[in-house]
Amino acid sequence: MASLRSLPLPAPRPITAPALRLPDPIRDQWTRDAAALRFPDYRDLDAWHTFCGQAKQLARTHLPAGIAQQLTHFFSPVGENSLVIENLPVDPKLPPIPRDGMRPSAKEAVTEAVIAGIISQWGEILAFQNEKLGAPIHEVTPVPGLERVQSNSGRVRFGFHSDNAFLPSKLRQRGLMLLGLCNDDTATLLLTADQILESAPPDLAESLAKPIFRHACPASFNLPGSSVVSQPCPILWRDQLGLARVSAASSSIEPLNAEARQALQRFRDLLHDLDPARIVVSPGTALLFKDDRVLHGREPVNGPRWLQRSYFTDSLQPLREAVHADPRAFAFDARALLRVHP
Questions:
Q1: What are the boundaries of each domain within the chain?
Q2: HSE on the CB side for 243, CA within 13 Å?
């Protein structure tokens, strides 16, 4: 009989905070107020910032103090890995789900006002000119012809990953916000960096913390060419605060030596064995998470699905300074960012 010391330890269970819920009367009034806004041509930077300011004021008016307090903590450096808010406003009359992955011109601006309003109170929306034409808010829905692609446009199961891991860590998003418009039962899956690190054998954790991996550009970016890869970087490590961090485009990682090749295979096996949190981003549900504190994936999409996604960061000033951009800019050329040393 094996001793207790020799028995394998159970893998850590996923930890998720209970969902917050907006009361119906507040949702209804916020919906009416947001419906009066017009979504701008985001290429007009003044118009975009005016919209964000209006949306921010609506969110400040309608978010209950308890939810606002939870959001304040989430956006802090030591806040939760993820946060779920239910019963948020959605356009009363949505147009048909877009088949091209782009925002329908006939759509009202209700969900966009919610996303911009929440993020703008605690951070800034970030976009990339090479993805979704630089739109600040992305339509996440299957696109005909791309069903089998590992991207937000596909229908196949999407493996665990960090978005845009090929970019320097200081010049990409800090987190994501997803808001459901239409979604039957397709779940977003989350694994925390703590969960992965606590389950990794010490020698594997040591290898994953070394800068012996490169990340390739994702399929959703219009950046053809195999040269579009990150600088050598780690996958899993602890920062100066002792927080576990993870950055991994898990299906497109290039190992740089034999140690990295072995560690990468063990890392993928480990992810397969862990138990992720399963969150259905249904209509009116928002999921926010830190993109370097969790890996996220998606179940296969078998029915209709339409989410909106936005990247957020604490401040866009470092990106504007790095590429000498307009002081109002929110969308950046990924190739220019790759030329900036992290």
A1: 20-338
A2: 14
Say which residue the tokens 């930890």 belong to: 15
One-letter amino acid at 241 equals L
Give one DSSP letter per residue of 211-275, joined into a string. Answer: S-EEEBPPTTS---STT-BPPSB-SEEE-TTS-EEE--BTTSEEE-SHHHHHHHHHHHHHHHHS-
| Rounded CA Rg of the chain | 20
pLDDT digits (tens, 9 = 90+) for 87-100: 999 999 999 999 99
Tokens of 313: 């960061």
Closest listed residue to residue 118, CA positions, set 58, 173, 174, 35: 58
| pLDDT tens digits, 224-246 | 554 678 889 999 999 988 999 99
Q: Tell me the CATH number of domain 20-338, given options 1.10.10.60, 3.40.50.880, 3.60.130.10, 3.40.50.10610.
A: 3.60.130.10
pTM of the model: 0.92
